[in-house]
Specification:
Blueprint (H helix, E strand, L loop, with lengths): L9 H13 L22 E12 L7 E4 L2 H12 L3 E6 L11 E2 L2 E2 L7 H19 E11 L1 H15 L4 E8 L14 E8 L25 E7 L23 E3 L8 E2 L3 E4 L2 E2 L3 E4 L9 H12 L7 E4 L5 E6 L10 E2 L5 H9 L11 H8 L8 E4 L6 H13 L4 E6 L12 H15 E6 L2 E6 L5 E9 L10 H13 L12 E5 L2 E6 L4 H11 L4 E6 L2 H7 L8 E5 L2 H7 L4
Length: about 575
Amino acid sequence: MADKYDTYTKAELSRLLRDRDRKPRYGLVWERDEIERDHSINSDLITLEHDHSLSVGAAPYENLLIEGDNFDALRFLRMTHAGKIKCIYIDPPYNTGNRDFIYNDRFVDRDDQYKHSKWIEYMYRRLTLARDLLAPDGIIFVSINDIEMANLKLLMNDVFIEKNALVDFVWQTDGNFDNQARFKVAHEYILAYSANEKYVPPPPVIDPNADESSKLFREEIRNTIVKNGPKNPVSNLVLPAGFPADFEEGTIPARDDKWPHLLNDAVVKNGELQNELVVRSGWANKNLCEAFIRSRFAPVLDTKSQRTRFVLTKNGAIENLKTRSDEQSHVVSVIKNVGSVQSSGEHLIAQGIKFSYPKPVGLIKYLLSMVEGKDFLVLDFFAGSSTSAHAVMELNAEDKGRRRWIMVSSTEATDDMKDKNICRDVAQKRLANAVTGYDYATRSGNRTQAGLGGGFAYLRTRRHAMNALVRGLQDHAVWQILQLIHTDKFAAYDAASLVQKVMAGDTLVLYVPKLNDAALEQIVESIDGQPQSIMYCWNPALLRQRMEGMEKSGVTVENVPQYIVDRFGVKK
């Protein structure tokens, strides 16, 4: 194919190359021409095929589990959900060379000279699609480790724009398992970017009873006032007169009827305090005599404030909890105490599910807590075992939220493992258990985990050549697409009905697969009294002819499949 350089002379080409060499480029550059083309890249139209047998719960489905290549799934979602996703979390392959990154149905070896370029190209294609899905106030979180951190940072700056970077979290993990390793790597990263630099997420609302040491958002600052020492042995809980001399184990319940107020129970074992005590001045606990309280807390309780709070830590430090104002509130960039991949993996094994290195539910719940509101859509297109969906369901159960989720998980099949299917055998089973509940075995006996409720649709990506779309799309696929575009949820196609319809706010959406007198009668009856109606059909000219003047009454007609093709777009 001819290009602009064909007409250049040798001298002109030499001058062009010299000028190019003299101009250094700043940013991420990778060998796009040297690596083989990603076989996933295509320009076919994508639809989703609903598998009723693997779906859980009743329609209409608000949560979607999609099996297939995430490049295909993202292009479908760009057609139906562009600008609708409030939160994206992904845990892409780290490109370790340990059979974790599949490119063109083969694992990329650690000795592959183009392994970084393949990873960057692979991620670039998908991140550019994800960018179109974020809502104006949306946030994307991306997990990564040291291997591709530098490349990912430059890539995110390019795709999501550097000024939209929020923070690079450091997640404190349990570290690598090799005790012989010279360096114990005990961290990963989570890069956070907003869709718009003008939008900064507000501090999350955290359960006040949650573990203070693991809160991302610190509503209070701890200032150590008195350190433990020989003259201040507060970690040794010596009980005052009025308690049995042999009281060395038990729980002293929190009470608020006397000075000072204990905000939580005191757990005592072997005569020592086992947990942190949060104390507020102004009240007393009748189960702890005033003399004891005064002797232990007098150095810091000499205040007239009725709202000052203090912590007596297990190691004996007394710390003042100073409440922050809204202007002072912040999110801590180091994340810890949110679970581990080891414990998460063991939890799955207890359910009969094998999956390597699943992210802990607590980690994803933390990230979700930074997203404003309780009613929004969460996407994970490297879902794996679908920890993100599980986290959404748990968080909804805790705070009565209405967050919905879309998970995309591939089969991860390769040339030598053609029957492998992570989405079906791991993600689906885990989420079905989370919804309905399950029994599992522990060392102390069998236990039952109650279900979180809800449900989801199990879907598979399907490709359709653009030149074969005239009457080539099945009616159920068309109706599914239209519902997701207008409502973010879908119910099954009703073959017994001549006209499919659903309300999207104050707009009635109709799909007319075949126009005849009976269908026309249903249309007229359906749109009567509706302020806005939009109808999709295969022969809009005929429909307009049969319903002359309808567009003047708030009715719009769209052509199938042209509307879908235009909405889908063709981008490589």
